[in-house]
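Morning, I've got a small favour to ask if you have a moment. Here's the protein in full, and shout if anything looks odd to you:
***
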Amino acid sequence: MAAVVSIIGTKAASAIQVGDFQIDVAARSATVRGRDLHLSGPEFDVLVFLVSHKRRMVTSQTKLATKSEHEGVRQTEFLPALLSLRKKLLEAVPGAQYVHTEAWILYDFLPGV
C-alpha cells in the first residue's frame, strides 16, 4: 500500500530560500540560481516537499496529498513528478545534481550552497 504524505495545511513560509533555490509558495513559483523554473502543479508540490523534508526516505509509491487553489485536494503521483522535476532542474542548471536516488528510493536532496 502506498504511503500518503500530506502537505495540506502546513505552515510553510510564503517565501523559502534554501541553497540555490528561491520559492514563492503563495505564487507557486520557483527559481534556481536566478533562473525561472516553469513547473507543473505536481512538480512544484514535489519541490516544496523536498525542501521541507530534506533527507527523508521516500519510496516511489509515495503519493502527495496536495491542495491546489483551483482543484481542491488531489493526490499527486510522486515518482513521475519527481522525475520530471529532476529533468527540468538539469535543463536549468546543467551538471547540477540536486536530487539523488538509489535503488528507486529518494535519499537526499541537495539544494546547493
